[in-house]
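Exercise: predict the fold of this chain.
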Amino acid sequence: MHARALKTIWDEGGVAVGCMLMADSPIAAETMAQAGFDFLIVDRQHGGMDEGTAIAMTTAISTSRTVPIVRVASNDAAAIGRALDCGAGGVIAPLTDTAADAQAIVAATRYPPEGRRSWGPVRAGLTGGPNYAAEANGAVFASGMIETRDGFDALDEILATPNLDGLLVGPNDLGFSFGNLPKPMPDDPDVVEAIRIIPQKAADAGVMAGIHCGDAAMANEMIALGYRWISLSVDLGFMRGAAEAALGALKR
């Protein structure tokens, strides 16, 4: 039950740190897992991988203690169920704008009577052990995303959704929605205030607030605001940054 590792971090008052994976490479995913992240997000929304590669990446991540999470392309029950069946410890669905959106995410991740997930844990049954059926509802991680003005305005209703585990803030899209160009940390006062308010309200509701950060400096700011999980940059960003640093250090 991979997601239990994240819930243990949060139960102990810690912050979980991960990274968004955009490259369509199981080897790259396994390499990032060995770096020591608490979780990695296989990004089916914006990443370059097809479903088969995403499954292989989830499998590769599972060779480590890192929790594999899949961000599905849309809030679709079939896509959410397949991600979990193929071994994801949790899912993130984008564009959570209403309480109904949040309820749909939860329903797709839970077996009856708590939800409507269909039985067929192809890999999850292997990695989850013999008690998977009884334990799965409490072990998976179900998260939406707050990345629009509509989602922020409906935050209280969204947070009231039973069994919603987390909400990931997309700061760039949130900045877009407020009428600003996206930046690693939007500097419009209304966006900054929204980003400050979200973790406070989430904590009161028992929901883990997360946010995507462009760099460690932003991540430290967000942790200080009360965010409990951090998506730190993307795999391709780390690769390019290391290459540029190495090239810049050469004397030629």
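Check your answer against the key: The two ends are 51 Å apart (CA to CA).
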